[in-house]
Amino acid sequence: MNTALSLPADLLPAVRDFGCGPTAIRKDALAKLGASSRLGSSHRQAPVKDLVGDIRAGIRDLLEVPEGWEIALGNGGATAMWAINAACLIRSRAACGVYGSFTAKCADEIDRAPHLGAAIRTVADPGGLALPTAIPGVDAYCWAHNETSTGVRAGTERPANADPDALTLIDATSIAGAVAVDISAIDCYYFSPQKAFAADGGLWFAILSPAAIARAEELSRSERWIPSILDLTQALANSRKNQTLNTPAIATLELLADQLDWLAQLGGIDACEARCTRSSGILYDWAQAHPLARPFVADASLRSPVVATIEFADNVDATAVIAALRDNGIRDVNPYRGVGANQIRVGCFPVISPDDVEALTACLDYVIERIAA
């Protein structure tokens, strides 16, 4: 491993954080955060409640949420939503698409719930896609819009011929706010704000259909024990007041609100998707043209616009590439630890400029030429 490799200054990107979560945060947003008068104040008073109200309205506008769907939020990050799904939205049996570490973790959470049957899994190897089909008796279908561990993008349409009251629960953590989506086809579209929304972690947001709200209310009236922190009806009741059940990270809310304004100024969801697609396309095109690299996701139609995973040939040590980039200030292009492949994984969220992704490919050329065995 060559840890002394120095990249020419004129090759380096302006923004050098390419993490897939948390992602880079805009410097002007951080400057505004430092000047905020709401930090350290009560989340049950008007200044913070107004902020939460602005965020809920901003998400509704950006993602074009239809009438009747409500936006709830709470503490714990999107990981908490896997438990909330099991506690509050799945009656007895769920079917899951499993095609990476995060979709597997969602199914594992269902398996651990003592009141539910084991998740029915449709499985693909990392880099592929497998979505559940309609199964009699299944009352919820679960998968990720974007599998963050591999860079696979899935559709969000409910399974054809599913039971009419079955819910579709979509983990959108790494893609919400980056691509257009038909919310009317989804019962629960949930995410955290540390990806496309360029904030910090620790909160979850869920866009809930009338059917999902009715299911949560139904199960809250049952004999099922639902801890308060996981109770979706309590989260929704508080969200309608523009607050959370317990104290949120106000700094995260401030960053999220600022990013929502920036995304609107960028041109809204279509402009966000175009920007992310351009950035990831630069990487995919580079990998296809390079003799020692390739896109990890072989099917181009499944490649994520926000998480670009690149596989290297055996004579290129990805660990050495990552170390050389980090030594030059280019951070967080590590592959997901559970995949264990010879690859890098690059966040191409809206905050990342396509020009910086172009610069990253030049840096990769420079490094690979000097370390390839």
Q: What form results from the Cα inertia axes?
A: globular
- Structural class based on helices, strands and sheet pairing: alpha/beta
Number of strands: 12
What proportion of the residues is helical, as a percent range? Answer: 25-40%
What is the count of helical runs? 10
Cofactor: pyridoxal 5'-phosphate
Pathway: Amino-acid biosynthesis; L-serine biosynthesis; L-serine from 3-phospho-D-glycerate: step 2/3
GO molecular function: alanine-glyoxylate transaminase activity; L-serine-pyruvate transaminase activity; O-phospho-L-serine:2-oxoglutarate aminotransferase activity
Catalytic activity: 4-(phosphooxy)-L-threonine + 2-oxoglutarate = (R)-3-hydroxy-2-oxo-4-phosphooxybutanoate + L-glutamate; O-phospho-L-serine + 2-oxoglutarate = 3-phosphooxypyruvate + L-glutamate
Description of the structure:
- By secondary structure, this protein is of the alpha/beta class.
- It is about 35% helix and about 15% strand.
- It contains ten helices and twelve strands.
- The protein has a seven-stranded mixed beta sheet with strand order 1-9-8-7-4-2-3, with helices on both faces. A three-stranded antiparallel beta sheet has the order 10-11-12. Strands 5-6 form a two-stranded antiparallel sheet.
- Strand 2 (about 95-100), helix 4 (about 100-110) and strand 3 (about 120-125) form a beta-alpha-beta unit.
- Helix 2 (about 45-60) packs parallel to helix 7 (about 250-265).
- The protein is globular, with a radius of gyration of 21 Å.
- The relative contact order is 0.19.
- The model has no long low-confidence stretch (mean pLDDT about 95).
